[in-house]
Amino acid sequence: MQRGGFVNQGDVKGPVLIIGTGLIGTSIALGLRALGFSVYLDDPSPTTLALTVDMGAGLAWDSSAPMPELVIVAAPPDVCAQQVTDALQRFPDAIVTDVASVKQAIADDVCQSGSDSKRYVGSHPMAGRARSGAAFADKDLFYGRPWVIVPTEQSTQEAVMIVRNLAIDLGAVPTQMDAHDHDTAVAYVSHVPQLVSSLLAARLLGAPSHALSLAGQGLRDTTRIAQSDPRLWTAIVAGNAGPIAAILHDLEDDLADAVERLEQYSQGSQVGAIGVISDIVAAGNRGVSRIPGKHGQAQRSWAEIEVLVPDRPGELGRLFTELGQAEVNIEDLTLEHAAGKKYGLARVQIDPASILTATEELEKRGWRVISVGESK
Amino acid sequence: MQRGGFVNQGDVKGPVLIIGTGLIGTSIALGLRALGFSVYLDDPSPTTLALTVDMGAGLAWDSSAPMPELVIVAAPPDVCAQQVTDALQRFPDAIVTDVASVKQAIADDVCQSGSDSKRYVGSHPMAGRARSGAAFADKDLFYGRPWVIVPTEQSTQEAVMIVRNLAIDLGAVPTQMDAHDHDTAVAYVSHVPQLVSSLLAARLLGAPSHALSLAGQGLRDTTRIAQSDPRLWTAIVAGNAGPIAAILHDLEDDLADAVERLEQYSQGSQVGAIGVISDIVAAGNRGVSRIPGKHGQAQRSWAEIEVLVPDRPGELGRLFTELGQAEVNIEDLTLEHAAGKKYGLARVQIDPASILTATEELEKRGWRVISVGESK
Predict the structure, then answer these.
(1) Cβ <8 Å between A288 and B223
(2) How far is B72 from chain A (nearest CA, A)?
(3) Can you give the pLDDT at residue B270?
(4) How far is A195 from chain B (nearest CA, A)?
(5) Which of B277, B322, B349 best tests the A interface by mutation, with the highest count of A CBs <10 A?
(6) Which one, out of A135, A141, B141, B225, has a CA that is 20 to 30 A from the CA of B255?
(7) Rounded Cα–Cα distance for residues A177 and A155 (Å)
(8) Which CATH superfamily is domain B16-177 in?
């Protein structure tokens, strides 16, 4: 891939062949075409292939096409290793990668196949849409999304660089890890959530219809991904059964304990059901706070301003109003009021970037700012 | 509540007292104030009470205030029944309702308390925000949301009408059911999803940090409500333990079966793990399709147009383009192509409201429309 006229090791200059023109394969093809690459397409379905050619994603591969420098296997995970092995054999000079959501099973099969596996590096672009299929492909699908690069012990440095540059050229954020770490990671953040969402949604089959009329955003959010394709997910889970089973086993243990205590509690026993539920919800609070926020950081830290609030009608409201006029967003506010004192203390959580503005504007308007610091 | 000058049975003319000025209580107060009602507020925390008075939600209740006609108890579910009973005794002419997420436990306590429970009708306005507390109150919080009305066997018709009119005046959609049906319903659509989301999010505590960097929308959606307040949810779950435990028990059974098969599968056994996973995801598909869509109906039904597509380059792309020009949104498209035939068959799923337009526009442009009907 040429950048600014420099041709480095790790730049692909020749054709790219994409095997499997579903959502991911076609999106990659459209992205590469937009960058000026020569792209060939192959797919077992002639009509899907025809559609993607019509969409401008590339030319249909046939035996008269030039040999590719890079082959991207975008086939379902259960046929992926075979496609990779075939490509390594058919194209002895090409680097080969794949896009499957599981990596260890594929790497094992490829490395044990007797093919020239040093030219293979696994990929997992973590992007997608609710709808699958070529018709929904988008050249910007990968923009800002993680693209995991998974070399095997045999992969050459050149192969790794080529795949890394592919990810970068498509706007993705490359991150490298070995197959075991990858599969564990996706078990936690993707595969277990999928199965749990499906198990939860399945409960609605037993719900009376008047119940569904009360559905709200919480139910919709927790079951949205339960609309996924059973065939695709069966292949994914089969390819990552070990890590998934381990995490689900721990969940099962916590759930079994909660169910037993709740059943006894509902029959009148005092069995610590309250404590167990509190622990589960609190543990969930801590777990969800580990998910990075919008800008890739863990839960933001807030700044806290402490302001004296005179014990007169309207003063609290005035504090809110004047912070709003200063365009300071209030994340949270707590009030302490000691009986008999003439003041209350308001602790206001705000964006750390607003500290100076908030302090100046409040003092300008006569407020007594007691302290400014980091929120707990 | 006066409508167009008519004063009917079921109209409240006098003051409304709201006990508990958190998110829900304060939002109700703001809504009633905007409609011109006389509203009084009470809360165990003087500073929270002061804040809500400052926000314009009403006047602080004291012994010099006029007797209320309607009392709304917006206290946490574990103190709710006591507050309702006290209100029935303190205000012998008032109708009393509450807003707790559980109804049977509260109704039982109120009816067994010896108070004049015929003036009590339970409520559950199903609205909320991620953030709790008076500072985030909104007079339009209930707009378009379900408001469940739960009379007891003793409630008078007048009491039911007053509470129903309260809901309607705040823009909510009233729906009536008995306490048992209510508690079962919210177990399915709210309480079980909450606990499952918390259990899922808690797994992230054991995840390596490189895993969290791969978090995507699926994880965020399934764990969003895991940010809920442990104290509130402990009180809710304790008040609805029976129905919740029953649903969770079924989930536990399905989960245990899946875990066992996945563990055996990962150790090399052929134990039907594939079939079990496929069944779980498919059952989840069916479950989630029972959730009403945006306009209150179950999963929309689509129309399907079958169009002959000549086997020439560019024809599929032309079909897409010309449907777009006719402003017909394509929900899904599948293609069949029989080898050796000169045509393929495109099945295009579209909004049923677009059938006539799509058919006319395609035929105008020379397409052969084979059939039009309801999608499977």
Answers:
(1) yes
(2) 21
(3) 76
(4) 7
(5) B277
(6) B225
(7) 13
(8) NAD(P)-binding Rossmann-like Domain (3.40.50.720)
| Separation of first and last alpha carbons in chain A | 48
Burial class (CB in 10 A: 0-12, 13-18, 19+), A33: middle
DSSP B300: P
Cβ-count burial of B113 within 10 angstroms (0-12 exposed, 13-18 middle, 19+ buried)? middle
Q: Distance between CA atoms of A101 and A201, rounded to whole angstroms? A: 23
Count Cβ atoms below 10 Å from residue A241 Cβ, excluding itself.
Answer: 24
Give B272's contacts (C-beta < 8 A, 6+ positions apart). B261
Each residue's pLDDT tens digit, A143-179: 888 999 999 999 999 999 999 999 999 999 999 999 9
Asked if B220's CB is within 8 angstroms of A291's CB, the reply is: yes
**To the nearest whole percent, how much of chain A has pLDDT over 70?**
90
Instruction: Find tokens 């029953």 and name the residue.
Output: B246
**pLDDT greater than 50 at residue A295:** no
CB contact under 8 A, A277 and B207: no
Neighbours of B73 (CB within 10 A): 28
The whole-number average pLDDT for the span B7-16 is 72
Q: How many residues does chain B have?
A: 376
Q: Contact B204/A287, CB-based, under 8 Å? A: yes
User: Between A45, A208, A218, which is nearest B194 by CB?
Assistant: A218
Strands B59-60 and B39-42 turn out to be parallel
Asked if CATH classification 3.30.70.260 holds for the domain at A302-375, the reply, yes or no, is yes
pLDDT, tens only, B219-263? 999 999 999 889 889 999 999 999 999 999 999 999 999 999 999
Segment A59-64 long-range contacts (CB within 8 Å, at least 24 positions apart): A61/A17
Structure tokens at B183: 């508690």
Q: Domain map of chain A by residue range? A: 16-177, 250-291, 302-375
Taking phi over 0 as left and psi of -120 to 50 as alpha, with beta for the rest, B170 belongs to alpha
A196/B278 touch (CB, cutoff 8 Å), yes or no: no
Contact partners, residue B255, CB within 8 Å, separation at least 6: A199, A248, A251, A252, A255
Q: What's the DSSP call for residue A66?
A: P
Is ipTM beyond 0.85?
A: no
Diameter of chain B by CA atoms? 91
Site of tokens 């709003």: A324
Q: Would you say the pTM of this structure is higher than 0.90?
A: no
Partner-chain contact A51 B292, CB within 8 Å: no
* A325 vs B103, more confident: B103
d(CA B185, CA B344): 48
Count of residues in chain A: 376
Higher pLDDT residue, B374 or A27? A27
Which residue reads 């480095």 in tokens? A8
DSSP B298: S
Measured between beta carbons, the chain A residues lying within 8 angstroms of B249 are 259, 263
